[in-house]
């Protein structure tokens, strides 16, 4: 009985082994599924080499081209004028900005002028007797002498004898002393050198002004300049008179300026050259921050693409027979978002937008825009 049971179990084991072996053989010979080819749709562009202008971005603050810092060269009380000395006050050329009380100093000037007049009057009898040929011109000078006006220039001395006589009486010395006092007297009044506006006032009417004290600032609000720093590589290219496009930070206003000056030296620390852009507009104010685009030069037979289309190996992706390939390119100029390239043949089909995971040999197809217009039935 035991032998019969072992025989039956042996037969069942053999049968099971046969079935398992057959199943393994069938699974091994089963064909593997074929992976479907993935074709990436890409945006393309066809190369057409042209002349690319190199635009240099720069920025800076506006400052008035005509600016005067007002300082006092005399001491005295600040007297009221026809206009309040306050920021924002407009003045025309020649109008009085500041008037310092000069009553005491004026009296000393008048005293010196009177002494000069008396000195000349004292020599007139001697001139009539000893120098009758020059008497008349000195008499005319004395007649035109007005203590309330600026001292006129002394008559021209025509001979050595006349020169010795006039100099010996101390008249020339007295004359230049008076002119010196008159020159200083003029410093008690500061007039507007041009039509402009007061932007800073550091004193008020009635306050004591001291010698050397800063009084304020006066500018011409019609013409402004913006100082920008340009890379030294463009130092020999940037030209005076170049037109410059300027925009504000909000990109809502556009102004047109021109390069008025270019510094002849390069900053040793930053290796940049300073250029000054002149701009005129009634909407501009001193201190405004503007962005400028300067046309430095033009590159012939070149193209401009996005910087992210240029690989680290200075190559770009091109499309040949529906496959991606790489082509070496020569970058000429980099901006914040663009790069100018040379040595890319005309007619070459390149990527217009970057493709994630792109590699040479990748299967792609150009994106074709559907321009068919669907007309709705009425």
TrEMBL record:
Top-rank taxon: Bacteria
Domain CusB-like beta-barrel as annotated: residue spans: 227-297
Residues of the Multidrug resistance protein MdtA-like barrel-sandwich hybrid domain: 67-215
InterPro entries: Beta-barrel_RND_2, MdtA-like_BSH
PANTHER family associated with the record: MULTIDRUG RESISTANCE PROTEIN MDTA (PTHR30469)
Identification of the protein by name: HlyD family efflux transporter periplasmic adaptor subunit
Organism: Olleya marilimosa
Lineage: Bacteria, Pseudomonadati, Bacteroidota, Flavobacteriia, Flavobacteriales
